[in-house]
Amino acid sequence: MPSRSIDLPQGTLDLLILRTLSLEPLHGWAVSERIQQISSDVLRVQQGSLYPALHRLERRGWIKARWGTSENNRKAKFYEITRAGRRQLEIEQDAWQKLTAAVSQILETA
Amino acid sequence: MLHDLLFRLRTLTRRRAAENELDDELRFHLEQQVDKYVQSGMTEAEAMRRARLEFGGLDQVKDECREARGISFVESMVQDLHYSVRTLLHSPAFTACAVLTLALGIGANTAIFSVVNRVLLNPLPYPNPQELLAARQNDSPPNLRDMQRQTHAFASSGGVNISPMDFTGNGEPVRVHGAYIDAGLLATLGVQPMLGRWISADEDVKGGPRNVVLSYPFWRDFMGADPHVLGRAIRLSDKTYTVIGVMPRNFTLPRELADVFISLWVGYPEAAPDRGVHFMHTYWRLKPGVPLTQAQAEIAQADHRLAEAFPDTERERATVLMPLHELLVGDVRPALLILVGAVGLVLLIACANFAMLLMARAVTRQRELMIRASLGARNGRLIRQRLTESTLLALVGGAAGLLAAKVGTTLLLALRPAELRRLDAIPMDARVFLFVFAISLLTGLLFGLLPAWSASRGDIAEALRENERTTATGVSRSPLRSFLVTAELALALILLAGAGLLIKGFLRLRSVDPGFNPANVITMYLQLPGTRYPQIPLQTNFRRELLARINSFPGVEAAMITDLPLAGNYVGHRVVIDGQPTRAVGSEPEVQTLSVMGNYFGVMQIPIRAGRDFHSMDREQQPLVAIVNETFVRQLLPGQNPIGLRIDWAGNEPHEWMTIIGVAGDVKDSGLNQPVDPGVYAPFSQNDEAWRKWMTLVIRTRLTVAGLVEDVKKQVWSLDSQIPVSGIQSMDDLLALSVAQQRFNMLLLGSFAALAVALAEWVPTVWLRIASISEPTKSESTSPWARSSAMSCGW
């Protein structure tokens, strides 16, 4: 399994977190699980960098946190995306798509 | 942006809650992860191990989360502070050592800075002090008036001359400092009277009303602080003046001591119109925005005009204006700056010690640091934690230094030399506190960084190996420490050499023969009021009678002289010598002129080197005689036998020749380290200058001083109850006073050097002891505690 997974490129973690949270509010562990699942276990979130990223996004006002109950009935901190967060997500998605398009264009033609 | 700020603020205010939430959140994550692994078939223990391994250093993640929330700096500082206080209290020997070292260094610096702050940095106690100028040269009242009229750069200007006045009619007669002023002076200084008003320009004329403005101390001491003092009449030097104002408590003239203020034209009408007698200090206030150069140019023009109009007396005018502050502190500045440099060296030594103490401590705490590092604390964070500790130490040291400085300034005040005599208090104002704070902070950061950085550089494994060896040798090999020790010794040596030179100079000065024997000689100063003793015979009778009465006391011999040695304030006259070629007017040699009565040379034990002493027949109606000093003979009559030669004052037409009857030994007239000026002694009774109304009694006695002084005062007042007796001091005190400045410098630099040597010598020794003796026990006691404290930060 480790051989299949790759570490996240720098700066994409924020984008992935925002994208994941844009579907529904989740707690931190679920965010990392979700990213891993959706990417079919290719992307692994460094757990050490997940939480600082969540707190950073919260500080910027792109996500907000509230305490709720997890599916197995435990107290958990849930994050949900804010309106500012959605705008930011659009911007970053846009930028990401432009970047990947450009990169693949180079890879294909060069 | 606002959100960001509010967010930070909220997390900051509910710090504990936020911290708990962070704990909860991360714990929840780990538990979820463990659950997941258990469900996939792992044992609980293996699941836990795996989860933690994946998660990485918990401390580090938490740190990064705090940082991400933007409050980590303040928060972790609070944490570090808390931690530092605990660790410092845990090792009181080290803490005491470090605080004491810094307290001494910072204390000495603060004391000196307080003086510098007061003397050099504090603005003058007048509004807009930057506009105030003073002329370097004295001037006469008529010149001042003319210059005021001819210049436009100044908002106002004024002058003052201080002359003693007798204040009578209020118990014992008292000699006070009379300020003969020009009406413009107060407007120039810009201070309003506390009561009443200042002397106006129309009153400042010949024949104007006799009004007086009082200083606050005079009003308090002699007027009983009477709020209704305005309009009261007081007697000053036999004239009645009406009180029209009282100055505020903190008012002083820039350079002069003054008790009462009187118009020069009213109080001293005989001197005021004399253009050629330059006896006023003049002060000038620039109009706002006018540069000094323009003012100086206008003054130069006025000088030029005056020189053309009055070539006899004003030909050599060259008035130089300078900022008042510069004039007042210019002389003290170099001495103070040297002290600042010296005391700065002491601080450097203290700082080097501080750094060494920190290094020693770093070694004893290596195990604790390793544990923290292995728990995920990052290197930067560890350095910061140690900086917090050193800064905390430095600030505590600074606070202790403030106390030391308080003691120091009290000592400085007690020892202050004449130049700083007007310094009545050395207050610690906001600037001093800021200085202490800044210097402590800088010390803590700079000298804490050095050892913190040098300790953090080696990796953990290296430190581990190092820790196996004995600690003291481990650090004593460090190049940083060798450098610090060498630097300390070098700095201490510089101070020692400086102090040694000063001590040597002072001892040489003290061993200088003043030319007289100061032991058991008391001096007192009297001045005859001109109103009642206008002629010389009246003055002579008073003097002769007083001396006869004092000399009738058993075991006492008294004599009189105009001005005492060492003071340097004699009257100078130009002299011509009979038979020598005539010199151009104004280029004759100047000599000090002293009048004596009684056995002056005997009382002072000044040897007569040739010829004879005065005797009782050298008096009025007898041939005029003089005694010259050795310097007179050496400079003006080299290779000649002076006895029998005749001298007279230049400009005395026709000449009334005085015959030189003797040569007296040289006496240090202007100070022990000053060359002796040529001098001429003549009998008071043959004096022809009625304005020499003053005299200083010199009394050799074996009686107790207090009793004798009272007896002499009684004799003075039985002759004339209106004459103040002042300047009561022993010749020994006068001698000590004349070297006070050198003594002050020597004591100060000497104590700095002692402090430097103590610090450079003592602290390294103590350091070794702390490092070598306490190390084994300390590491035992530190480690478990450090571990538990490190644990409590994590799980």
Largest sheet of chain A: 3 strands, antiparallel
Characterize the overall form of chain B: elongated
Named at the architecture level, the CATH assignment of chain A is: Orthogonal Bundle
Low-confidence stretches of chain B: 466-476, 774-795
Please state how the strands of the largest beta sheet of chain B are arranged side by side: 2-3-8-5-7-6
The overall number of domains of chain B is 4
Number of helices of chain A: 4
Radius of gyration of chain A in whole Å, from Cα? Answer: 15 Å
Broad CATH class of chain A = Mainly Alpha
Proportion of residues in β-strands of chain B: 15-25%
According to DSSP, the number of beta strands of chain A is: 5
Q: What structural class do the secondary elements of chain B suggest? A: alpha+beta
* Strand order across the largest sheet of chain A: 2-5-4
The N- to C-terminal Cα distance of chain A equals 32 Å
Task: Count up the helices of chain B.
Answer: 26
Biggest β-sheet description of chain B: 6 strands, mixed, barrel
- Tally the structural domains of chain A: 1
Q: What does the average pLDDT of chain A come to?
A: 84
Oligomeric state of this protein: heterodimer
CATH homologous superfamily descriptor of chain A:
Winged helix-like DNA-binding domain superfamily/Winged helix DNA-binding domain
- What is the C-alpha radius of gyration of chain B, as a whole number of Å? 38 Å
What do these coordinates show?
The complex is a heterodimer of chains A (110) and B (795). Chain A is 56% helix and 18% strand. The longest helix of chain A is centred in the last third of the chain and has 27 residues, at 83-109. Chain A has four helices and five strands, in the order βαβαβαββα. In chain A, helix 1 packs across helix 2 (28-38). Chain B folds into four domains: 2-73, no CATH class; 137-319, no CATH class; 333-510 and 741-793, no CATH class; 529-722, no CATH class. Helix content of chain B is 53%, strand content 16%. In chain B, the strands form two sheets. Chain B has a six-stranded mixed barrel. Chain B has a six-stranded mixed barrel with strand order 13-14-19-16-18-17. In chain B, strand 2 and strand 3 (174-181) form a beta hairpin. In chain B, helix 5 (72-90) crosses helix 16 (379-415) and helix 20 (479-510) packs antiparallel against helix 26. The two termini of chain B are 35 Å apart.
